[in-house]
Amino acid sequence: xxxxxxxxxxxxxxxxxxxxxxxxxxxxxxxxxxxxxxxxxxxxxxxxxxxxxxxxxxxxxxxxxxxxxxxxxxxxxxxxxxxxxxxxxxxxxxxxxxxxxxxxxxxxxxxxxxxxxxxxxxxxxxxxxxxxxxxxxxxxxxxxxxxxxxxxxxxxxxxxxxxxxxxxxxxxxxxxxxxxxxxxxxxxxxxxxxxxxxxxxxxxxxxxxxxxxxxxxxxxxxxxxxxxxxxxxxxxxxxxxxxxxxxxxxxxxxxxxxxxxxxxxxxxxxxxxxxxxxxxxxxxxxxxxxxxxxxxxxxxxxxxxxxxxxxxxxxxxxxxxxxxxxxxxxxxxxx
Length: 335
Hints:
Strand content: 15-25%
Distance between the termini: 44 Å
Structural class: alpha+beta
Number of helices: 10
CATH class of the largest domain: Alpha Beta
Radius of gyration: 19 Å
Binding site for ATP: 18, 52-54, 72, 95, 143-145
CATH architecture of the largest domain: Alpha-Beta Complex
Site (Important for catalytic activity): 18
CATH superfamily of the largest domain: PurM-like C-terminal domain
Low-confidence stretches: none
Order of helices and strands: HEEEHEHEEEHHHEHEHHEHEEE
Shape: globular
Function: Synthesizes selenophosphate from selenide and ATP.
Protein name: Selenide, water dikinase
CATH topology of the largest domain: Phosphoribosyl-aminoimidazole Synthetase, Chain A, domain 2
Binding site for Mg(2+): 55, 95, 228
Number of strands: 13
């Protein structure tokens, strides 16, 4: 299986294969129109599309319990099938952690070119996803599979959160520090891996790492606003948070942590189309000052299974900026 290069079967890689953020904004805006409502809804919707597009939907069960539900899947981001499964599962579970919740149960979502790739490889992908979900204390049972020319894998996840202790996109308040819980750079390193086959063990480990501990620490610290940093890059997700809350997020470029080889990857030109689209989309909403182009690309790098961006200080994780009252630009990058 080590000789098989799964990334060569995909047009994009990981979260870089998402629909471009500007197009997605238009699509979600059309869906969010209040021209249709549930008939006699069984539960109250606490978080949906109105908050600016949170990481998951939340419906209330009672005063102390709410259900978190999400789904996430993508094309191969690494060649090793077991690692791809681990990363995809961690990424799907992250949506629940980004809401401050705990994942309870998941089902697999598998798209497989069965005439091109052995089913034994698919089994390794599923095994990787199961192992990460089980490490999170999350049950995995069944799922749905279809055949198609390009492989994709992920999970639909259901979790639980206290309605008064959620992390929301629209709750960032001026005066709060900004915390980032994982280093950036997985996008450019995944692009390099796809082009050359070079394996970056640190990137794999970071992408497969659960956001569980960071989420729990944030909730314990009284943080009430956050999101996970994935396909739209740090800048894209910061802009969405600032837009939803009506604030400005100021990012200290020198304080942002990066994976060891990330800068070398940009210098070598290993930048995905998704990252460049991210930067084109967010640039009109960002005051970059004198920050150079390579730094802008890294800040817009399309992450896969990235960390949490939190409006509050969380012990053990780096502070990379602060929340300000709304200014001329929703996001400011200080060099």
